[in-house]
Specification:
Radius of gyration: 20 Å
Number of strands: 0
Number of domains: 1
Distance between the termini: 41 Å
Structural class: mainly alpha
Oligomer: single chain
């Protein structure tokens, strides 16, 4: 089996796993909010089979009761008690908070590539890499602020939550985590570019497979960072 075949398998598997998670959630297995849905679906793209296993292991909600579902024995008034994400352990919450950082980063990376496709003719080739790093970082912070505001403002604190507080919470809770993810991600890509630049140039599947591996590098460093931050009270879980 060639490297190209392995790359193609895992990249396509990422799409399959993300689609599987999406359809499972929409099959009356609602999450706590849309942010959690976003996290699991985006994680499916880069986490592939590991993401799918994690979703079914700790992320999947019990199927909601409906009157037309004869096989479901949960009474309607107990429906809310069978939403599994409300029963996550502390370790699972740390895990999910780390996946949140990865989802924000991957979305910002995709938007950056879209923006640079228009700016590539205006920038020198030597500036493209620096522009990509800076734009990805800024977009990630903006997305994190938006998600932080939506996640809290439209919950119990809607009457007293402001955009200023969302920005403050993002810089306090997410800045270091997103920095850790981007550092590990770009560090791995830089290492690969020194060793195997030709592999990614000649075979697009290899490039996207390397992106998946880089995301795992970001996950590992950010997970360790989040554990340390939580230990010292610098961050809260989702």
């Amino acid at each position: 089996m060639t490297l190209e075949s392995v790359s193609e398998f895992f990249v396509l598997s990422g799409f399959l796993c993300a689609i599987t998670i999406f359809f499972d959630i929409t099959n009356n297995r609602a999450q706590q909010n849309n942010l959690i849905v976003f996290i699991w679906i985006i994680t499916g793209f880069w986490g592939s089979w590991i993401a799918l296993y994690s979703y079914f292991k700790i992320g999947r909600s019990e199927k909601k009761y409906t009157e037309t579902d004869e096989e479901n024995t949960y009474p309607p008034h107990l429906e809310s008690l069978f939403i599994r994400p409300n029963k996550r352990t502390f370790s699972e919450k740390i895990f999910l908070s780390t996946l949140y950082c990865g989802s924000v980063f991957l979305l910002s990376l995709a938007l950056t590539q879209f923006i640079l496709s228009f700016l590539s003719g205006l920038l020198f080739n030597d500036l493209i890499d620096y522009a990509q790093w800076a734009i990805t970082y800024m977009i990630a912070l903006i997305i994190a602020i938006a998600f932080r505001y939506d996640y809290v403002a439209f919950g119990q604190e809607i009457a007293r939550y402001t955009l200023k507080k969302a920005i403050t919470k993002t810089f306090k809770s997410d800045l270091i985590s997103l920095t850790a993810w981007q550092t590990a991600f770009n560090g791995y890509l830089f290492f690969i570019s020194l060793k195997t630049q030709r592999l990614t140039d000649d075979h697009p599947w290899n490039f996207w497979f390397i992106i998946q591996i880089a995301m795992f590098c970001g996950f590992i460093l950010t997970l360790l960072t989040n554990v340390i931050m939580l230990k010292f009270g610098l961050k809260k879980t989702l």
